[in-house]
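Entry:
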Amino acid sequence: MHRYRIVFIKEGDFACLSHLDLQRTFIRTLRRAGLPLLYSQGFNPQPRLSFAAPLAVGIVGDGEFLEFDLINHIESETIKTALNGLLPPELAVRSVREVDPHAPVLASQVGAALYLVIFSPPVPELAPAVQSLLAAPVLEVERPGKKTIKRVDIRPFIYNLYLQNAFEEDKLLMFIATGNQGGTRPAEVMSLLPSQTGPEQVRRLAIFISSANDYITPEGEALSAYLDRLHLNTKESE
């Protein structure tokens, strides 16, 4: 068994693709590429693949991750070329690499994500609202369940917020918890912000794994280094 991890984008009209439709799209593409997929056992065998922290509908993804298993070894560049020849540019594969098939899947390791929310035109009330959120001990939102709507405190899941004000737009970076251990979504955080105008764009920049001293991307880049590389002149809103 050989496991591969691909990094792809999700933008344009394909940002509105549901997770189920995205899964179907990649299964069809992997099959059309002629890759020797490894299937699950049981009555209805399916290709063994796993998306890390699937995106909510409507959010652009700059670096989304998919892992899948092959029976035979295939060169990473061969896989990348084959997939990009079949996928639309809005779902282009950025990279492919082989990973340890015995290690935990990436989906089980993700603990946080960094989102960029752009407000255009700027919202004058945004700065004090962000400061209030970070100062609040409890932030409850309504979250629909299967039968009822429950109230959930999302404050423990908001790790940090960074705000950059500009003449034409405001840029809000949300570093929030996500993954199997619980988390929140940008829409829940934004529901607590001024509602005079909606964001022009929401995009996920990266996902992160918790390490001993920092959060790191699946490629091994620390959160602090990632923020420095953005060149957004971010200022912590606390």
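The longest strand covers residues 60-70.
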